[in-house]
Amino acid sequence: MHKIDFNDRWVFIKEGKESYIEKEIPDGEYITLPHCFNGIDGQSGDGMYKGKTCYQKKVALTGEELREYHYLEIGAASLVSHVYINGILAGSSRCGFSMYRVFLNPLLKEGENLISIVVDNSRFDDVYPLMADFSFYGGLYREVSWITTRALHFELLDNSRDGMYITQKAIKNGIYELKIKGSVINELHNKLESKIKVTLLDKEGNGVLSKTMKCAVIEKEEFEFIEELNQPRLWQGIEDPYLYTLKVELYQEEQLVDERNLEIGFRTIEITPDKGVFLNGKPIKLNGVSRHQDFAEVGNALTKEHMELDMSLIKEIGANSIRLSHYQHHDYFYTLCDRAGLLVWAEIPFISVPSTADKENQNAKDQLERLIKQAYNHCSIYCWGIQNEITIAIENEQIYEMVKELAAIARNLDAVRYIAQANIHSVANESSLNDLTDFVGYNLYYGWYYKEMKDLAVRLDEFHKVRPNIPVMVTEYGVDTNPVLHSYTPSVKDYTEEYQLLFQENALKTFKEREYVLGGYVWALFDFGSEIRNEGGTKGKNQKGLVTIDRKIKKDTFYLCKAYWSKEKFVKLAGSRFVNRHQEENDMVVLSNVNSVKLFVGEKMIGERNDHEPVKIFKGVKLAHGENFIRVEAVDSEGNCYYDEMFLNRVKDMDLSYVLKKTEEKTTVTNWFQKFDLTNVQEVAIKEGYYSTFDTIEELYKNEEAKAVFKKYFGDLAENPQMATMRGLMTIDSMSKRSRFNIPKELLSVINKELNVIEKRK
Ligand code: GCB
After folding, report:
1. Ligand 1: lining residues by beta carbon, under 6 Å
2. Measured from the CA of 542, which atom of ligand 1 is nearest?
3. What residue stretches are annotated with the Glycoside hydrolase family 2 immunoglobulin-like beta-sandwich domain (predicted)?
4. Which domains does the chain have, with CATH numbers?
């Protein structure tokens, strides 16, 4: 297989005329892939383009070249795409985060060929994600490659990436089994003799294992090697992410015709309900971050440099695990994770609400199949996440069935890895949803969307008590934070850096104190585009990141995590952006993984600490009027020094630019029910054939009277774009189970009294 970049000089137009399928775009723009057409508007919060677009490129081929076999590999195109060669459909994909390939030969001709790719990011009722808190960027946003093969080659069209699957597992006392299973294709469909050779090389390039197998191929032939390896050097996570290279060569009569070089790590991962996670038999708390793939101004059109920058930040913070949410990420990113030693939670966008248009849930199944087949060979991946908060609107048997089916598909495709899910907090501990995967994650926002920070520990302990046999972790926790906002008295929904710090510290302590908690994934490492958001002084972004979307500002909480997780010694003064201080006495927060720390104001040392605490607070430090130079000095046990410094300005009056102007916030969280009388409410026995709180909003809306009742209590709620997508699923009853709607139980009876007298027409 010969693969070349096919990224330069595409012609792009942000419209999808039928004629572009076969005719050249007259006045398009020249672009280079990867390309996203929502790089700016997908993060502006002012509405983004959603619709058809077209990418075109010409390629000239000679008669001789046509005797070879040609494939186009599309890294990813969002959300739905169709590839046309000289006006004829050659292939398409409804899995906007996965790679796909198209066999070109039947449609190619000698001379010039026109390739048109129509990419559409409109809403499709049967394509995930349907609804989520991130921007559904459109574009041909990963690289495109042109692949040329000989007649004999490894499989290219089974939705896998490598045409083979490598499985490693420990079988006994330091002995590992290495299984390589794949297929060889013969384009000529006449019998060809081939030979497959596998060689395992260590980092220095020494052969550790070598095996050859003969294989006669007519059309397609499967092959399988099962070898044993004694005492391989293990992949030890971030401590020592040791990788071997597996070279798999395909020969036709002694001539090398195809080849794969795949990195592989040997490791065992055990997840227990009471003692947490074990990597190669050693306990490891998952100090995790979550990542969305987008970046300021380019949307999801990432280059290798973007991904390497992200990885350098992940390494800096000291995370040992990552949740790559909420969809399949770039293959190179999984490779970076293998090399960095991160344990990866990989997942599909079966998120928020299931499709009512796709009864078979085919799109979720397809995305799962592609994720697993394409990412299978990455040793960093320890689990497949099959759903995220899929019960936001409603939790019922149908959804359980869907999750069950996805779990079965994942198990069938990968017998070794764990299968997991991330539940919304409203899923009861006892819910049978929790029984459908090997372990469970909960997205818990106690102290942000609901209740208080301390309730995180309460909830986890309750879960563990009720479900002692289900391993549990926190798959999301976080708070929106705008690094220009500051407070002496941080509180929920103030969006300050100081509140994020408190929130994060509470969570990290909670995990640390509980052996049974597998760990947590902070939501999120980077701010990300979310077209539906307008809060915390910013539009179009979710600001729960520890780093801003342009990766330029590391919020204080970044260093808090670093102090907890990283072995790279450092010291950092929190609050350096909270420059103008109107109080004389200030608590100085020092974040460090070095025990011995001294704090200075000007030349004067005003305090010293020597302990293991990652957060060291120097209380009531007095500031003089005007500029104050604050310096912190840390010395480790070997005598190495680390410094940080900042200027603080003592001012007379409070700097109001640090306080959020509460104008834009109008969320669905209200107390509007207070205006209804809920005293002495009697329960209503629901009559069949009449409307009730158990009908979906869509059904209520079909009847003018029932709609009026709904509107009386909820106003235009059902018409806001987010709710609109849930109308077919959500009932008033299911809304009442979501704390953000704040619906008192008694209100259901009040509403039923009015709804349950309206007869349903046949
Ligand atoms: C969640 C979702 C995630 C959101 C996050 C939030 O539970 O899984 O996609 O971005 O909450 O910030 O609200």
Report:
1. 132-133, 326, 388-389, 443, 476, 523, 542, 544
2. 12
3. 164-267
4. 2-149 (2.60.120.260), 164-264 (2.60.40.10), 283-568 (3.20.20.80), 581-658 (2.60.40.10), 672-755 (no CATH)
